[in-house]
Amino acid sequence: MAVRPPRPPRFDVGVALAGLAGGLVLWAFGLGLRPAGSAQVLFDGRWPLLVPLAVMAGCELLRRTAPRTGLALGTLALAADLMTQGSIATIVMYTDLMYAAVLYGTPATARRLPWITGMLSIAATLVPFAVLREPEALLIGVVMGAVTFTPASTGLIVRNHRDAAESARLRAEQTALLAEMDRVQAVTAERARMARELHDMVANHLSAIAIHSTAALSLKDERTSLDALAVIRENSVQGLSEMRRLIGILRDGADDREPAATPTLDGLGALVEGARANGLDACLDAAYDSVPAPVELAAYRIVQESLTNALKHAAPGPVTVWLRRHDDGLCIRVTSAYGGRDTPRAPGSGAGLVGMRERAALLDGTFEAGPESGADGRLWVVRALLPVTDIAQGEME
After folding, report:
1. Where does the Signal transduction histidine kinase subgroup 3 dimerisation and phosphoacceptor domain start and stop, copy by copy (predicted)?
2. DSSP secondary structure code for residue 307 in this structure
């Protein structure tokens, strides 16, 4: 299938028609560059100059679609025009072809044409003066520079400005794209963080409410029901307080209250006591020095979620929370009895394990959870190692 040549833009068609019309007007009034009968005119008469004029106008149609071809044909037409009486319209259109060849041509053409035309202008200035020894001979180089070097240099300047503007536009688009990507990542990370905080702050209280409400409904003993209702009320109040704090954060300044303190490892004792109040046989074995705040928060939330999972899924038996500070980081291990329960005491979504794994990963730590066999039978073991050396050095810097 034959490829159709590209059609010239309307502007180029207008330029060609305007140049041709201007040349015809000058021809009609007999205005040529050289008088008839002069020694420089090889083809005397008014009609021969129409041929290079028409060819030059046709080359204007190629100024953007094929600029080098148009310039080459235009150079031949200009040489033919020099053998006739000549037309100023032909020369003006040639300067436009030189300008367009630099502006719309290849980068190699844009680099070479100003140098070539500059050298030709210098040669056209020096050589005739050296041969003729007349000051008027210098005008040949001036005319050569005006017809070739000046439009080529102008085209190069315009092209450089155009390329710089295009580069700035592309950089602006890339910057906007990167900013949008950063915004999306920041929103995604913030949503994940809020989801972890919401789950960790509220799930423990709601799980206790669900378990004790089930006990209150299923047992007929009045004392047991009252104890269960007391636990339900306590967890309801604490859960509502946590929800209000979270809503205050999300309102972006609508809450004028002081922000809630970030949980620390010093609160593990109260956390374990709360787990005992909810019915777990929990104990704490912790020995650690001071650790960075991000590690404290992550460790507190991991222990909190582990106790919540034990409350919902663990079989009857002791629950042990063990923490130690080693050279490689803060080690956490939470064990609970595993097996012997067909259904959980409260429904779960699996988001707790995901949240704990994410918290460890954000600190470049490790996390694993699963059943293991031990001296006390089958246990569900949660292990996490949170490095503290790199974080502590980062905070000091």
Report:
1. 190-253
2. H
Identity of the highest mean pLDDT range in 8-12, 31-35, 199-203, 251-255 = 8-12
Q: What is the layout of strands, in order, in the sheet containing 281-287?
A: 281-287, 318-326, 329-337, 377-386, 366-374
How does strand 318-326 pair with strand 329-337? Answer: antiparallel
In this structure, what are the phi and psi dihedrals at residue 37, rounded to the nearest 5 degrees? 85, 0
Region 264-397: CATH code = 3.30.565.10
Token duo for residue 10:
């309307």
CA dist., res. 53 & res. 17, Å (int): 11
When mean pLDDT is compared across 32-36, 62-66, 263-267, 288-292, the lowest value belongs to 32-36
Give the distance, in angstroms, between the CA of residue 393 and the centroid of all CA atoms in the same chain: 30
Q: Which residues pair with 285 in a beta bridge?
A: 322
Q: Please check whether residue 95 is in contact with residue 150, taking contact to mean a CB–CB distance below 8 angstroms.
A: yes
Give the position of tokens 């490095």.
387
| Rounded-to-integer distance, Cα 104 and Cα 81, Å | 25
Tokens, residue 140: 């040949």
Unique residue bearing structure tokens 């106008």: 57
Q: 358 — phi, psi (to 5°)? A: -65, -40
Q: Which amino acid is at 277?
A: A
Question: What is the phi/psi pair of residue 99, to 5°?
Answer: -60, -45
Residues of the chain with CATH 3.30.565.10: 264-397
Tell me the β-bridge partners of 229: none
- Of the CA atoms within 13 Å of residue 124, those in its CB half-sphere come to 17
Classified as helix, coil or strand, 3 is coil
Other beta carbons within 10 Å of 118: 15
Residue 156 has pLDDT above 90, yes or no: yes
Full DSSP string of 71-120: HHHHHHHHHHHTTSS--HHHHHHHHHHHHHHHHHS-HHHHHHHHHHHHHH
The distance from CA 167 to its chain's CA centroid, rounded to whole angstroms, is: 17
Residues 6+ apart with CB under 8 A from 293: 262, 264
Q: Which helix (H) or strand (E) holds 137?
A: none
Give the span between the Cα atoms of 363 and 376, in whole angstroms. Answer: 32
Q: Answer yes or no: are the C-beta atoms of 271 and 304 closer than 8 Å.
A: yes
Grouping H, G, I as helix, E, B as strand and the rest as coil, residue 330 is strand
